[in-house]
Amino acid sequence: MTGLATLAYVLGHLGDTSFFVGGPTGTGPSHSAWSFIGGIFENSFGHLILILVVLVLFFHGVNGIRLVLAEFGLILRKPSAIEYPYKPRSLGLGQKAMIYAGIAIALAAAVWAFLVLFEGMG
Amino acid sequence: MKESRLMLIQYATAVAAVVLVAVHLIMQGVIYPYATAISFDNILSIYRNGFYAIFLEALLVVVLVHGFNGVRIILQEIRQSKPWTQLVDAGTVVAIIITVAYGTRTVILAVFGVVSPA
């Protein structure tokens, strides 16, 4: 889900950045087209969307690193017999830590994005 | 291409995307204040710096290959048949080519195009 949301944003971003060169029919850098697209997206609603994108993107990134490490067996626990209460053995401390780290990093990044976009920090 | 190799591409582009997107975000809100970062003159100077133009093109290719290959993997998990696999694989290649071409057009016009007056 986070990957699909990020791809949807990337495609939109591909469209809006093309207005730097006048949009789909442009021929070069254009002040007026860039001001036009900025007038549509550079407002509180647009900034709120960007904060959500940062939230989703950072979680996707950390969770993706977890999946890569798990795929190569670096943070997988040793296989063992499945016993009651059937807790997933593969989710060892490393994987659980990375899931919680992903949530924490995503929230911190969203706060940082809020400060940059709404408070003018940077 | 073998599925194992496509997954390796997915992991390699994931790692590359983490680095490239991090640099991209740092340039938007740390090195420059956001308002400066999205100003016309600043963006033009970034595009016309050869290093950053190549950086943005690399970011474009890495993110789109990773994104569309990710969609391909999801679609292959939903359903498995030879026609479906071939359709999804072909659609992925077409989507990557079209979007990379459109983004590359932006980069080329931003680097070499004539700036229209304000």
Brief overview:
With 122 residues, chain A is mainly α. In chain A, 66% of the residues lie in helices and 0% in strands.
Q: Under CATH, the topology of chain B is which?
A: 3 helical TM bundles of succinate and fumarate reductases
Largest sheet of chain B: none
Number of structural domains of chain B: 1
Rg of chain A from C-alpha positions? 20 Å
Order of helices and strands of chain B: HHHHH
**Parts with pLDDT < 50 across at least 5 consecutive residues of chain B:** none
Helix/sheet category of chain B: mainly alpha
In terms of DSSP E residues, the strand content of chain B is under 5%
**Could you tell me which chain pair has the largest interface and how many residues each side has?**
A-B, 37 and 44 residues
Total number of β-strand segments of chain B?
0
- What quaternary form is this? heterodimer
Dominant shape of chain B: elongated
Describe what this molecule looks like in 3D.
- The complex is a heterodimer of chains A (122) and B (118).
- Chain A has four helices and no strands.
- Chain A is mostly helical and 122 residues long.
- Chain A has two domains: 42 residues, no CATH class; 80 residues, no CATH class.
- Chain A is elongated.
- Chain A starts with a helix and ends with a helix.
- In chain A, 25% of the residues are buried.
- Helices cover 84% and strands 0% of the residues of chain B.
- The chains are: A mainly alpha (122), B mainly alpha (118).
- Chains A and B meet through α1, α2, α3 and α4 of A and α1, α2, α3, α4 and α5 of B.
